[in-house]
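Sequence only, no structure available. Ideas?
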Amino acid sequence: MSQATLPGTEIPPTAAPQPARVPVRAGWRVALLAGLGGVAVLLAVLAVSLGSVRIPVPDVVRAILGEPTETASWAFIVTEIRIPRALTGLLAGAALGVAGLKMQTLFRNPLADPHLLGVNAGASFGVSLVLLGGGSALTGGVALSTMEGLGTVTAAALGAAAVMAVMLLVAALIRSTVIVIVIGVMVNAFVLAMVDMLVYYAQPEAVKTFTDWSAGSFQSVTWQALPVLAGMVLAGLLLAVLSVKRLNLFLLGEGYAESLGVSVRAFRWTLMAGAALLAGAVTAHAGPIAFLGIAAPHLARGLLRTADHRYLIPGAAVLGATIAVAASILSQLPGSEAVLPLNTTLALLGAPVVTWVLVRLGRGGRGLEV
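Reply:
I predicted one. Tokens follow.
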């Protein structure tokens, strides 16, 4: 006779606690995500209000509604400069946070980020050809015909796509994830070496322009460019949401995922393509943005206390957006005409997180599990 049939051992339906606990825990995480989303929206409002010229929130609302503001120029500043910049920060932060999460899960590496895909290196090479090639002694002062006349956004997108095509081909041909990572590092080093050569031989004025682009900025995205950026980011986020179940299976290893019917090689290719779409869209429009891809996923794991991608994907998106907008506010130095490079402020916010990751990694902490 089994234990379940012994007298007095039956468990009444009302005594089973597990079904009641799951909704409570899930509800807590959903509430936390909603609260983090509220913080991101609040910071976006502050980003529109604060800057070299402080605009009161009531006037911000009037400008959005098309009503007169206390100062006539405020309406233009709000609608044409600050709102696109805040929306770009939200989109870029969400995209890079989710892209970093996907890379860390795919490579099972807590320090993986979209840079491993060669997106930033490819974009930098494309922009360097446009900004540096025409006046470079290396090219004889003649712009390369294939890149001549292209804007930085188009050049960055083409450069990122070219390098990503190589990495996706590698991912399709090679089964070992470790070898894919190593090849990615080598491709990055080779492409960045070509960028350094162009920088070395370029004119000082062109080098300064390229350096400014490399520092990252949300200010260059206009209303005309926003629909393109938003469409690419939303498409990439949708791909991530549709991959939740397979991402969770990858947490247990590629062998386990494959035993349950997942085509590891095909899914790895899809995962890299989705992450490249997210990172490439942001890099093309805002320049190479650092730290977000590493910091946001680890903050999401720490706050939500789970490895379930049903919560981590929205968590990484919201936290990435929050960090990006906070860095944008800090870079504007409210009340001052000076503007800090975006990557500088992101380093101030992100470096402590990365340091925490390294310390926990060295101590073998469970907080680094991906």
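DSSP finds 14 helices and no strands in the chain.
Hope that gets you unstuck.
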